[in-house]
Amino acid sequence: MDKFLQAAIEEAQKGFDEGGIPIGSVIVYDGKIIGRGHNRRIQKGSAILHGEMDALENAGRQLASVYRESVLYTTLSPCSMCSGAILLYGIPKVIIGENKTFMGEEELLKSRGVQIEILQSQTCIDMMIKFIKENPALWNEDIGV
Fold this sequence. Notes:
This protein is of the alpha/beta class. The chain contains eight helices and five strands, in the order αββαααβαβαβαα. Helix 7 (about 120-135) crosses helix 8.
């Protein structure tokens, strides 16, 4: 398995272990992780701390040139909020663990020139299926249903 997807899965597991939603993300620049995060909406009472947003926050302020040369890894297809941040900062490539349990704004990202790679990781799929089955209300809240 790709070491950066594995790092995103480890973040997702942290979120789950904390009582949150198991979605993780890492941002990679020049072959190194510069930001990592996981969905912490429940843990922090936050409206915006999805995995991708948490990874961006934890990467800290970066030069535009850094974002334009980074790759974002996420265990789940990015929602409209996270896709907007990807577009805002010009991240050119997103590697997605899976999009079977939730289809985010992949078409929007592609239409704006973002390269998308979907891995359909069984680990990512199984993690989300289990969470959604056990916590449907939390999941619906997270995706705005």
